[in-house]
Structures are given as C-alpha cells and as structure tokens.
C-alpha cells in the first residue's frame, strides 16, 4: 500500500521529446541545446504547506540567480508569476546552475576537542583558555575541514551579513547540519559543491521530471518532507509525483528558524536552556506578494545578540516561531493594506520542534498553527513589555491557547518557590503591568465605566498592604519618599507584608481561601461602593480559583 503527497490535480508539465536526458555540467562545451521544460504550478493544487513554501523558495532562488553577476548558461527562469500560480522554464544546464547555487558550500576549518573515529585531522593545535575563576590553562584541539553551506540567498536577506556569513545565516546553517541534514550521508550535494564539483542531484531531477511515465511516483525521505519515512507502522510508504517532489528542495530557504528555551528552576532562580530548533514553515496563500514581502521583512530583523545567537531568535515556545514570523510579515506590510493584507498572505504555519540526540534527529513536537491578526498584534504587545521569562512564557501559552491572561499562574505559584515569583523584581513588574493593562477590559457592558475584576482585586490587595505597613511599621510613602534610607526600609517592609499575605493565600484553597480573603484582606477599611463589594462576593463564590490566582498576582504586583 502506498500514499502519495499529492492532490487530485497536479502541476502541468510541458516538455518536447528532445527534453529527455541528463543535465550537462557548467563546463560542457557541447553545442547541443535542449528545449526548456515548462512547469506550471498552482498554489491550490499543491498538497502540503511544505510544497507551497517550496514553490515560494523556488521563485526566490530563480530571482536570486538572475541578480548574480557573470555568465548564465542554460535556462532557469520565471516565465510567469502571480499570487495564485507560477510558470518555470528549465533546461539541463539551467537546472544544473540552479542546483549548484542551491547547494553551494565551501570547506572551512573546525576546531574540535576530541579526535574523530577513523578521520585524520588536518593538524593539531593548542589554545590558552580562561575559566570562570580567571585562571588560564592550555587545551588541545584537533582541526578538521568541514563543508559549510553558503546560503547566498539567505545572506542577501540577513541584516547582520558580513563577508560570507551572518548571525541569522549561521543559525540556519546550524539547524540544517543538526536536523534536516543531521545524518552525514544526507550532506552529499553540499560536500560535492564544497569540493568544487557540480551536484549530481540536478541530473537525477531532470531525469525524473522528463520521464516518459509522467505520473510515476518517487519515494520521499524526512530530509525532503518532514515527517516522511520509508514505511509507517501500517506499511504505507511516502511517495510523491516528480513535479511536486521537485519543490521540496526549496522550502528550507523560506522556513524561519528559532531557538526554543526550556525554563529550569535551579537554586531558587529561573534559568533558560536552549533546546533544539523551532521551524516555522509558512503556508503561502498569495505567492507573488509573499515573495515580495519576505525579503524586506527578513532584512528588518534585529541585529542584537544574546551569546552567539540573534536575540530575536530566542523563543519561549516552539509555536512562538510562527508568531514571530507573522509579526515580521505584518510589520512589513503597508498600513494602507493593513490587517486584511496580512490575513490573506499566509494560511498558517506548520511548526516543527527538532533536535539532535547523539546521532539521532528527534522531533519534539509538530503542530499546525493559524494565528489571527488580533493574536499577532497581541503578541507584539507582549513581546516588548514582559521581561520575566516565567511570566512571559505563561502569558504566551494563554495567548496561543486563547485562555484568560491569568490562567496557569495558579500552577506556577503552586510549583515554584516564592523567590522566583513574588521575590523576583521582573516578575513583580510584569504582574503590575499586566493587571493595569487588563483593569478596564472586563467592564460590565451595561456600565462601561465599572471597574474590572482585576482592578477590584488589585485595589483590595494594595490597600491591605499599605494599611498593614502603616499600622505595623508606622511607614507611609509620603513621609519617606524624600529620605533614601527610610525609602529603602519602606520597600523592604512592604515586601515582607506582601510576602506574608502571599504565602497565606497560596497555602489555602476553597472555603479557607474565601474566609482569608473576606476576614483578613478585607479586615482593613476598603473604601468600595456596595455594588463592587457585591461583585467581589459573587466572584468569591462562583470564581474562587480565579480569585485566588488574581489575588496572588495582585500581591506580587504590590510587593
């Protein structure tokens, strides 16, 4: 039994009888010329997002070839392009030129601490390194020659590009060598080009594209189509038509690469640990517009670094890669086109979280994500304002899953030491900012000026902390704000009062929490109108879990 990655209709191919044969290399001096092969592609006929992204990658690569200086042997060009379709003309020499650029690479030296099994290094050398304590030591290194993909098209869209590399391109190269081409036997085309030879993949592609049996199928590997395998558990193989399988060479060149981080609480601190790569594959809906917008959008990426990675490439969730890409495209589109333009530019994104475990490439997650314009805009607001990694990750999960912004914080408070929540300055600031942002979003429809539940809880927590601070420690802000030493004492005692209430609320649930809220937090004068007290009482009875979460957030914000 076989399954094909095709739909009912397939792209039309026009080739004269003379178009059969193998591509010649660039140095072939034969005067014979083969009539171009014409490939017509319709976006709607392509079976997967990777195929549609591949068509966009092919368009961008052909445009890039046209801009390169020097002789252009053979035919490799766009004959027609619009938002729904493209026509491509290729002959053997042009296809060879296309693939030679696609898989262009060079040999570079790589310093490794351990010798490779069965491989002789170019040479050995010694480096003087300095450890964390400032002490120096000599370390022995083994230098090997390794092929490095050139990715000239991506370099032209990298705002950090300098000479033959750039930080965004390096991230893409590292992803390619760790995942898609993580097995050394899959790197053949790049190795050939690094050695100065033409890749044989062009001849194979030409033979398949011009075969007599136009509907003959070809097997797919996971290098070409993510998730593909020789046979699945039911014995079904992954196959495709040659004309559509051809597009799978190009989708990595429009795929956006990011680095997901896992958060680990260690020694009462939150640490982030990079884990693999997140790939956001755009499901292109408007081909010509996408190919015009993407290069300019990518040139607008940030140039700041965190370690040796672009700062903007670090994400808290794999699916955030789709939101980042959406934000780039949305930001690039003109204000005149607005939300309508972005909403019709892509259908969504296929998101893969890949990593390498020893010699094995692992898929940590795969999903389909279709963010609405409003979600992309909400993400842009979150991204620039939230500083605490734990707080930001929880808010992102809520945004993606379309839950209330405070959902999930109950688990964060229950499973994390208070030092990383209420005790962390960035967490406290994010809690205050988020509460203030949402204070007026939950107003009653019948009374738009009525305060939200967030605002009521915030006011109760704030007034309780200030009154207890004055009663217990005789401290008021207006009396200490001009005295640095008293101001420091004020802030320290304020945090103690908030922390005591925070720990008391965190340890209670159900009726115990309700009793503490009503009997302790409301034991100080709360100057609220009757209708607002009634609303708090109703929320305590019907939403006590949400009230507990909001109370903990409010106490954190007032610490």
Automatic annotation (TrEMBL):
UniProt cross-references to InterPro entries, sorted A to Z: Cas8b_C (IPR056202), Cas8b_N (IPR056201), MYXAN_cmx8 (IPR030928)
Domain Type I-B CRISPR Cas8b C-terminal: 346-558
UniProt feature, compositional bias: Basic residues: 1-12
Pfam families linked: Cas8b_C, Cas8b_N
Annotated region described as Disordered, given as residue ranges: 1-33
Domain Type I-B CRISPR Cas8b N-terminal: 77-338
Protein's name in the database: Type I-MYXAN CRISPR-associated protein Cmx8
Organism: Myxococcus stipitatus (strain DSM 14675 / JCM 12634 / Mx s8)
Lineage start: Bacteria, Pseudomonadati, Myxococcota, Myxococcia, Myxococcales
């Amino acid at each position: 039994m076989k399954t094909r990655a095709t739909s009912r209709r397939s792209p039309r191919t026009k080739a004269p009888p003379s178009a059969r044969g193998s591509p010649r290399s660039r140095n072939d001096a034969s005067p014979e010329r083969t009539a171009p092969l014409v490939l017509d592609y319709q976006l709607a006929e392509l079976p997967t997002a990777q195929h549609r992204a591949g068509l966009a990658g092919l368009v961008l690569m052909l445009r890039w070839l046209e801009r390169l200086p020097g002789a252009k042997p053979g035919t490799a060009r766009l004959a027609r392009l619009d938002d729904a379709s493209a026509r491509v003309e290729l002959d053997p020499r042009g296809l060879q030129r296309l693939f030679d650029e696609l898989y262009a690479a060079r040999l570079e030296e790589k310093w490794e601490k351990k010798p490779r099994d069965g491989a002789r290094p170019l040479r050995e050398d010694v480096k003087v390194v300095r450890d964390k304590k400032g002490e120096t030591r000599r370390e022995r290194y083994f230098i090997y020659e390794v092929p490095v993909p050139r990715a000239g098209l991506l370099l032209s869209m990298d705002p950090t590009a300098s000479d033959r590399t750039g930080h965004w391109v390096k991230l893409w190269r590292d992803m390619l060598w760790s995942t898609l081409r993580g097995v050394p036997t899959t790197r053949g085309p790049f190795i050939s080009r690094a050695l100065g030879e033409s890749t044989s993949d062009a001849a194979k592609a030409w033979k398949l594209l011009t075969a007599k049996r136009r509907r003959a199928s070809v097997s797919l590997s996971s290098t070409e189509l993510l998730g593909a395998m020789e046979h699945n558990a039911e014995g079904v193989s992954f196959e495709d038509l040659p004309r559509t399988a051809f597009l799978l060479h190009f989708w990595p060149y429009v795929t956006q690469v990011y680095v997901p981080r896992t958060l680990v609480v260690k020694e009462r601190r939150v640490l982030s640990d990079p884990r693999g790569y997140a790939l956001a594959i755009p499901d292109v809906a408007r081909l010509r517009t996408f190919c015009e917008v993407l290069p300019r959008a990518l040139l607008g990426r940030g140039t700041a670094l965190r370690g040796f990675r672009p700062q903007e490439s670090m994400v808290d969730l794999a699916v955030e890669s789709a939101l980042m890409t959406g934000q780039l495209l949305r930001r690039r589109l003109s204000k005149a086109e607005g939300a309508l333009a972005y909403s019709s530019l892509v259908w969504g994104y296929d998101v893969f979280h890949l990593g390498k475990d020893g010699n094995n490439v692992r898929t940590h997650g795969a999903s389909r994500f279709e963010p609405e314009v409003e979600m992309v805009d909400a993400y842009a607001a979150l991204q620039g304002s939230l500083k605490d990694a734990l707080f930001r990750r929880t808010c992102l999960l809520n945004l993606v899953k379309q839950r209330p912004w405070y959902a999930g914080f109950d688990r964060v408070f229950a499973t994390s030491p208070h030092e990383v929540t209420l005790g962390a300055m960035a967490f406290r600031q994010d809690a205050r900012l988020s509460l203030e942002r949402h204070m007026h979003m939950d107003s009653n429809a019948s009374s738009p000026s009525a305060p939200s539940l967030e605002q009521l809880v915030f006011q109760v927590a704030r007034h309780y902390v200030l009154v207890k601070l004055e009663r217990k420690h005789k401290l008021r802000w207006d009396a200490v704000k001009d005295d640095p030493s008293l101001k420091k004492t004020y802030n320290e005692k304020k945090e103690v009062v908030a922390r005591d209430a925070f720990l008391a609320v965190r340890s209670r649930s159900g009726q115990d929490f309700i009793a503490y809220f009503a009997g302790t937090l409301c034991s100080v004068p709360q100057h609220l109108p009757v209708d607002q007290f009634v609303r708090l009482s109703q929320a305590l009875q019907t939403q006590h879990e949400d009230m507990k979460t909001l109370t903990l957030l409010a106490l954190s914000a007032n610490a």
